[in-house]
User: Which sequence fits this backbone?
């Protein structure tokens, strides 16, 4: 039914209007509750109500004993869930911004209920709370502060990773009463840590993590302290029935009001947004403005004042009301005598419905401000709760934008969609009295989450589709998880129902549903569901958790993702005995190859065990050989070489390799003896380099012994001796060798070459003729060592006159030329 006036219920406090909106009536009609016996907490943004009866004595309830519980309701009074409670006296009941319920007991235990269905995590505060107890608790959006029995303060700033932290000691004796206290959330402090205001005796202490500051006040004691939602102002209620509003740093006083209730002090004091202070007595609520002008509301029973971001909820008996400052845009349009463009536009739509020509006059009057008027009407519709006036404002906006030649209707369409959603969730069956500001802060995605926590899956899906949100997969998965948890049907039927519902939806992952089934002890159902998960990266971790190791490994191999396969293999290696691990890997070539490659790089012991288990003794031997070559001590190296030789000797195909390694081991032993005798480094030189080093150092005896033991061929040894003589420049030894030996195992050409390269023509000349060869080769050798006359002699001897003429040019002096001419003439005379 439409309201006769949009300003019904508005009341003026100084220069601003306030309104009290009746959200729901008839709460708990079937089972009336005496709210004076309950501790009540309301989640922000129109969230759930939590009620805990402070009178813990069991009472008869419909013929049975009612057990203690924490009862969750929607704001319209519809029950959500009854949480059994047997953990002692509750000292703190609060909500986080994401609708997690926090319950703190007198002995310092904390339960965090993650949803509205009873799932929770638990931790303890510590710091002696099990002895001294918890006296009281104050919450903010993501944390809380607990006041202990010995007047200490413990803060928890996160619920996902709770780390209770003791604040600075206010050093207030246990017997000294703390009259009241409040907190300033970290977002509004300079230190970005929570601050606590303690009312002790007549002053206020400010406590943070590191220090305590006494504000040296004498107006106390203060029975109530309340900090504004934006953290800028603090309201103080004194025993003398006065309310002060001061800055949070206590440097400025903004107002002082005498309440004057004849010695009856309020039960609670909170802020209504950041604009005014609300005081609550047992059956009365007063709103204080800066100059003391108050609105008074009277009730028949206990009223609970529950603050939200843009106002306060008033819960009493069977109704819930919302008290807030009238938004400026509504006040601008609806206040009596308003001439704002939006107000004129609203009047125009009224005239249009009456078919009055005055509608056109109104439009012409605000023609220049028409875009502004349209925008104001759209915005005002969001803040209006009455559906009739929502429609009127949107009609006015639609009429105004139809007159404009160019206007972007996106904002109009968005507001229309938003209002449909808001009106739907405000319906008593859902019971979420969201305001427009709360909706913007909450976001549609978070609204969907809250509906899911209430098991409103179909409703959430319709909103998601209507707002074009990408939350449909999340809704279906949440529904499937609840189906797994609570359905009593056979597992095959549950699986079939879930698959039929989810398989038609793109982007659905069955992994979360399967994990839920596994956590609920339904392993067979979990395995069935995982068969429908298309992504191996989602399947495999859960299969491992379910100890379905073989299936997990096969799924990883099928995916072709080497990282995933290695993840499974490393998990199995840690979990299984080595022999069993190899039995799992061996039949799977891909897994075997990855393990072999990984072990080759990082774990040689595993590689050796792998080869041993697979009877690949030769491959294992080569691994030991690599270790031997990398050993930093000779005994270890020799031991590993010995083991390598033994492993290779067992195979006829590797006997040559075994003999070579055995010989290498003997060489190392020989080199070790040389180092000990000659005090010179020989280890790890090759056989030829060892012999060469000995010959260079003129240790012929040891060199000959090395040649004999390791059967160095004569050709190799002769060449090594030649290089050693050249290195030592031992030319006489070379001459003596050429004289004593008619032949050389390597021939005489290497002797000539080495000597020519060493620039020793005289010694090299001894080997020119020994080298033999064609006349042309002998001429080149003579020419190479600078003996051109000898080259000419060879040319003359064979009658190669062309060569003689070429060589004449290279003669060094006249004497050589005359000698060559004489030899030529002599040859020709013959």
Assistant:
């Amino acid at each position: 039914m439409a309201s006769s006036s949009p300003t019904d219920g508005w009341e003026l406090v100084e220069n601003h209007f306030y309104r009290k909106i009746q959200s729901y009536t008839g709460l708990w009609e079937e089972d009336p509750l005496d709210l004076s016996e309950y501790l009540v907490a309301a989640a922000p943004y129109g969230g759930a109500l939590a009620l805990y009866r402070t009178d813990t004595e069991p009472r008869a309830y419909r013929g049975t004993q009612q057990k203690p519980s924490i009862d969750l309701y929607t704001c319209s009074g519809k029950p959500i869930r009854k949480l059994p409670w047997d953990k002692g006296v509750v000292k703190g009941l609060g909500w986080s911004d994401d609708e997690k319920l926090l319950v703190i007991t007198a002995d310092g235990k904390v339960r965090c209920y993650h949803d509205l269905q009873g799932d929770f995590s638990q931790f303890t505060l510590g710091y002696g709370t099990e002895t001294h107890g918890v006296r009281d608790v104050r919450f903010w959006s993501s944390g809380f502060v607990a006041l202990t029995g010995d007047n200490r303060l413990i803060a928890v700033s996160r619920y996902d990773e709770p780390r209770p932290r003791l604040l600075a000691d206010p050093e207030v004796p246990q017997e000294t009463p703390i009259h009241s206290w409040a907190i300033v959330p970290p977002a509004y402090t300079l230190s970005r840590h929570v601050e606590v205001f303690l009312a002790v005796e007549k002053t206020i202490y400010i406590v943070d993590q590191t220090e305590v500051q006494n504000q040296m006040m004498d107006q106390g004691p203060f029975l109530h302290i309340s900090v504004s939602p934006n953290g800028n102002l603090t309201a103080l209620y004194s025993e003398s029935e006065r309310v002060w509003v001061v800055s949070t740093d206590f440097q400025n006083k903004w107002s002082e009001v005498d309440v004057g209730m004849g010695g009856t002090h309020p039960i609670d004091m909170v802020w209504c947004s950041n604009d005014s202070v609300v005081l609550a007595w047992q059956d009365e609520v007063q709103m204080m403005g800066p100059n003391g002008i108050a609105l008074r509301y009277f009730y028949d029973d206990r009223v609970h004042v529950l603050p939200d971001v843009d106002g306060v909820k008033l819960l009493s008996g069977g109704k819930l009301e919302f008290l807030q400052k009238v938004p400026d845009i509504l006040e601008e349009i609806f206040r009596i005598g308003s001439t704002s463009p939006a107000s004129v536009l609203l009047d125009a739509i009224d005239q249009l419905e009456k078919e009055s020509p005055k509608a056109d006059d109104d439009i012409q009057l605000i023609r220049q401000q028409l875009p502004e008027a349209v925008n104001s009407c759209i915005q005002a519709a969001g803040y209006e709760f009455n559906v009739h006036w929502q429609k009127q404002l949107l009609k006015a906006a639609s009429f105004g934008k139809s007159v404009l030649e160019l206007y972007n209707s996106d904002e109009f369409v968005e507001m229309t969609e938003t209002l449909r959603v808001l009106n739907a969730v405000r319906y008593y069956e859902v019971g979420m009295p969201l305001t427009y500001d709360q909706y913007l802060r909450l976001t549609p995605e978070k609204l969907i989450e809250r509906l899911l926590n209430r098991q409103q899956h179909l409703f959430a899906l319709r909103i998601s589709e209507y707002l074009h949100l990408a939350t449909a997969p999340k809704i279906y998965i949440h529904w499937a998880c609840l189906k797994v948890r609570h359905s009593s049907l056979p597992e095959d039927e549950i699986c079939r129902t879930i698959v039929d519902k989810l398989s038609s939806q793109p982007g659905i992952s069955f992994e979360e549903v399967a994990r839920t089934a596994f956590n609920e002890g339904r392993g067979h159902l979990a395995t069935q569901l995982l068969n429908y998960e298309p992504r191996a990266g989602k399947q495999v971790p859960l299969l491992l958790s379910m100890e379905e190791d073989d299936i997990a490994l096969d799924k990883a191999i099928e995916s072709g993702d080497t990282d995933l396969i290695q993840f499974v293999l490393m998990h199995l290696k840690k979990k299984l005995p080595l022999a069993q691990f190899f039995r799992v890997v061996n039949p799977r070539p891909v897994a075997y190859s990855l393990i072999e490659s990984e072990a080759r790089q990082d774990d040689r012991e595993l590689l050796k065990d792998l080869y041993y288990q697979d009877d690949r003794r030769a491959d294992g031997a080569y691994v030991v050989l690599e270790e031997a070559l990398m050993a930093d001590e000779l005994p270890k190296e020799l031991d590993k070489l010995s083991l390598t030789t033994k492993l290779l000797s067992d195979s006829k195909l590797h006997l040559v390799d075994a003999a070579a390694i055995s010989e290498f081991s003997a060489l190392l032993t020989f080199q070790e003896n040389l180092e000990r005798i000659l005090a010179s480094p020989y280890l790890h030189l090759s056989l030829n380099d060892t012999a060469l080093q000995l010959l260079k150092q003129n240790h012929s005896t040891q060199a000959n012994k090395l040649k004999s033991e390791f059967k160095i061929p004569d050709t190799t040894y002769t060449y090594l001796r030649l290089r050693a003589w050249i290195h030592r420049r031992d030319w006489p030894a070379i001459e003596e060798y050429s004289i004593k030996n008619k032949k050389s195992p390597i021939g005489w050409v290497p002797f000539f070459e080495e000597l020519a390269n060493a620039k020793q023509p005289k010694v090299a000349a001894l080997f020119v003729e020994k080298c033999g060869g064609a006349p042309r080769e002998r001429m080149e050798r003579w020419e190479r060592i600078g003996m051109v006359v000898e080259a000419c002699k060879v040319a003359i001897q064979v009658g190669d006159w062309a060569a003689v003429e070429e060589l004449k040019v290279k003669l060094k002096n006249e004497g050589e030329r005359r000698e060559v001419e004489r030899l030529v003439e002599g040859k020709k005379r013959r």
Observations:
- Residues 1-30+171-326 form a domain with the Methylamine Dehydrogenase; Chain H fold (CATH 2.130.10.10).
